Amino acid sequence: MTGEYGFGRYRFTSQLWVIFSAALVSAFGFGIIFPFIAIYLVNNIGLGDALAGVVMMCYTVTGTVFMLAGGAWADKLGRKKVMTAALAAEAATLCMYAFASSFLMFVGVALLHGAVSSLYFPAANAMVADIVPTGKRPFAFTTLRIAQNSGVAIGPTLGSVMILTIDIRQMFILSGMAIAVAFLIILAKTRETLPEKAAEEFSYRDTRKVLRDGVYLFLCMMILLNAFAYAQFFSSLPVYATNDLGVTVSGVALFFALNGAMVVALQIMITNHAVKLRRSSALAIGQALTALGVGLIFFADGFTGVLVAVAILTFGELFLSAVMFALVADLSAEKMRGTYMGFTGLVMGIGEGIGMLLGLTLLDVLEMRSLLWIIVAVASVPAVFGFAYLRKVVPDGVDRGRCSRYEAPGNEG
């Protein structure tokens, strides 16, 4: 796997392309069903908006714990072992949704699903960081993001057709089968990238070092605020758009399709621009666009207005995803990459869980339901300034994407 394939700064080893392919397949499989879960719980199972929010939050509750565990296991046991185990378990768990019929059953499956699916993310990101050097990481994570969102674009589009023609329970089975294909790809076509020495040096007690890393924890606080806002896109927005603005289920699927299509079409261009900026500046721009996009939903009166807001929200996502995980990788030591990726995922899961629960609860209790979008937009603004402040606390070479923290002059870690 020494040859590189691709073009320009997007030439990578065959193993990276295998990871990207698995990401596309798994995102496609999950995308078939995920945009319709909240609608299904409310309109088909008969749960209220708040109870649907509880179910969706349960998906992240165990995920917030097991995300960190997945990162630590990836640093100790190996990236590939954790990735394959997570995909196999997720495939089985998705099929279990097909047999759930009550609130408690959905809660149980969601808790289990969150636990097993969260293990994959830190291990996969750590494997990517293992393979590529600092300067090339934004381009590698950009390609991974494009692969994921290609699946996100195709999955909901196909799902919107399938939901009109087959039982949604069958869609859960098909979703699980797609994840199983991703499992086979990783199992057959990847090798372990965790250095044996790093695995031997890593101790589970090392995970506590994350809590003493003030710069990284500050970054995590900003990431949490972003995740809180972005969670509304896939939880509150589908319910609000269908029940308050009269958007059809197929119309909601187009919001997700637009998001995925924009990532596929524009992520490389945005990344090529973002890497010319300080990473703190790129993150601040992304958060500002996120706040603007969420706030504009307040003024939307139908499909077109929401579509414009989603487009702006997606531009924010493009700037953030261009550099965020590259920055996390560059703040971590080699033996701690999985742990840092896992803790980042944990923080994102907490933000998304709070966002889903609070967003859907506010929809349930607000007399003027559209005020939700103003509340979330205002809550997003502090992170704009927080991301910008990173330039004062992150080593200059790291902020400019020239080196990792442990390679920066005067920074031994």
Q: What is the element layout, followed by pairings?
A:
Layout: E1 4-5, E2 12-13, H1 14-33, H2 37-43, H3 49-76, H4 79-96, H5 103-117, H6 120-131, H7 137-165, H8 168-189, H9 196-201, H10 214-234, H11 236-243, H12 249-274, H13 279-296, H14 303-331, H15 337-365, H16 371-389, H17 396-399
Helix pairs in contact: 1-7, 1-8, 2-3, 3-4, 3-5, 3-6, 3-15, 4-5, 4-6, 4-8, 6-15, 7-12, 7-14, 10-13, 10-15, 10-16, 12-14, 13-14, 13-16, 14-15
Strand fraction band? under 5%
Say how many strands there are: 2
Which percent range fits the helix content? over 70%
Poorly predicted parts? none
With strands numbered from the N-terminus, the spatial order across the biggest sheet is 1-2
Task: Describe, in plain words, how this protein is organized in 3D.
The mean pLDDT is 89. The protein starts with a strand and ends in a 14-residue tail after the last helix. It has a two-stranded antiparallel ribbon with strand order 1-2. It is globular and about 55 Å long. It is mainly alpha-helical. Strand 1 (4-5) and strand 2 (12-13) form a beta hairpin. It is built from 17 helices and two strands. It has helices spanning 14-33, 37-43, 49-76, 79-96, 103-117, 120-131, 137-165, 168-189, 196-201, 214-234, 236-243, 249-274, 279-296, 303-331, 337-365, 371-389, 396-399; strands at 4-5, 12-13. Helix 2 (37-43) runs antiparallel to helix 3, helix 10 (214-234) packs parallel to helix 13 and helix 14 runs antiparallel to helix 15 (337-365).
